[in-house]
Amino acid sequence: MSEEITYADLKFQESGKKENIHEFDGVGIKVYTTLKIETGKLNKMQNFKEELQKNVSLQLIHNKNSSKMIRDLSITLQEIATKLCHELYKREPEHKCKPCPKAWMWHEDSCYRLSDHYETWQKSVVFCSAQNASLLTIKNKSVLEFIKSKKLRRYWLGLPNGEYQDYQNLDETIISSNWLTQRRNDINDRMFCGYIDTQYVYYGDCTFKLKFICEKLANPVEVKSTLLSEIPDGKYS
Hints:
The protein is built from four helices and eight strands, in the order αββαβαβββββα. Helix content is about 50%, strand content about 15%. The longest helix has about 90 residues, at about 1-90. It starts with a helix and ends in a 10-residue tail after the last helix. The protein has two domains: about 1-100; about 105-215, Mannose-Binding Protein A, Chain A. It is an alpha+beta fold.
């Protein structure tokens, strides 16, 4: 009788072990399956991240190229507008596209104003300064030819000097260091300043009263006001 009980107990224990093994195997399969699924999701997310980064990089390159194209186009339009405005300015000196204030002349990238009254050299400097400008200095051939074409008589230039000098041909002034000179005579504190008279530059006492020329940088030409200025019938606004 006891042997039958012992056998039954042993069989029951072995049966319990098999069930435990089956349960363990089932849990292991579930864990493996879950891990495989999650690994698959992680790989998909990684692939999505890499694809997203690639798309962002391509978009940044596209935006950079687009920005360069827009910038180049803007520069081209500005150049076209400036050239067109020059032509309009030749026909109508006070055309609305002109990048200089009214009564100022426009040449290349600068504006010039000829005074209609007389002042000492120092007061001429003050007057120009109040206009956000300075007395004219001739620093290149283009400006030289522009000024010579005006055939000016006795206009102050930005040429202060401490000593009297003989007159010189206007063409020589663009290679002269006098544009950067501002010295005083220590003996009598007298100062001589340069002025233009036709084709020559003379030096006179800075307290004399002469007319003068102011210059300042021109504003950029407005593309819209220029490109829309020409009307189909050939007239200009």
